[in-house]
């Protein structure tokens, strides 16, 4: 019963944060005041605060109190990864989800990309091209290239979801195949096709480029699994 009670208090505090009662970096009231407000004991409030700390909704600053936190990409990815693991979602399913999401992102990017963003995408492509011999650098720029594409969509929700999907698949053994030069070269051809589709503002070519890119990943995933 007490567990349900502190969870209920945690949910109420989180709801009030979402409603704007407390904003990022705002200090929460003391345990005593929260206990009075929710008509519970300070022990219940303490457990509720602990739950919110674990969820990265709030952060404790020693000697100062509890403050509203803004979850970063790492914490969001961690929560998403826990859900993926709990529901036994496979890496191939995640890659399929990434493909469908990135097709939508690409279509939106064509409509919303700015000149400055197009220049940034071009620079990232060039950095990828210069890093073909360095798998570590290539992987970093590959991440930046695809996340920048998501940013160009103009929809932060799509970007956050994409970052989580990319991060999870990127940490899997399946994604290790990009460490080989032939795969990086094949991926770079797809990056050029994506960039060209952006410049020509062609939704059809964008969709084709993204699907070819994911097909390349799947083919090398299959090859990697047979080794």
In short:
The chain has 227 residues and is mainly alpha-helical.
Task: Walk me through what this model shows.
- The structure is a single chain.
- This protein has 227 residues and is mostly helical.
- It has 2 domains: 67 residues, Winged helix-like DNA-binding domain superfamily/Winged helix DNA-binding domain (Arc Repressor Mutant, subunit A), CATH 1.10.10.10; 153 residues, Four Helix Bundle (Hemerythrin (Met), subunit A) (Up-down Bundle), CATH 1.20.120.530.
- 74% of the residues lie in helices and 4% in strands.
- The protein has a two-stranded antiparallel ribbon with strand order 1-2.
- It is elongated.
Q: What is the element layout, followed by pairings?
A:
Blueprint: H1 2-18, H2 31-38, H3 42-54, E1 58-61, E2 65-68, H4 73-86, H5 91-112, H6 115-130, H7 135-152, H8 156-170, H9 181-200, H10 203-226
Antiparallel strand pairs: 1-2
Helix pairs in contact: 1-3, 2-3, 4-8, 5-7, 5-8, 5-10, 6-7, 6-9, 7-8, 9-10
> What is the architecture of the largest domain at the second tier of CATH?
Up-down Bundle
Give the radius of gyration.
22 Å
Shape: elongated
Work out the number of β strands.
2
Number of helices, counting only DSSP H or I runs of 4 residues or more? 10
Tell me what portion of residues adopts beta-strand conformation.
under 5%
Mean pLDDT: 86
Residue ranges: pLDDT <50 for 5 or more in a row?
Answer: 223-227
Structural class: mainly alpha
N to C succession of SSEs:
HHHEEHHHHHHH
Query: Span between N and C termini?
Result: 52 Å
Query: How are the strands of the largest sheet arranged?
Result: 1-2
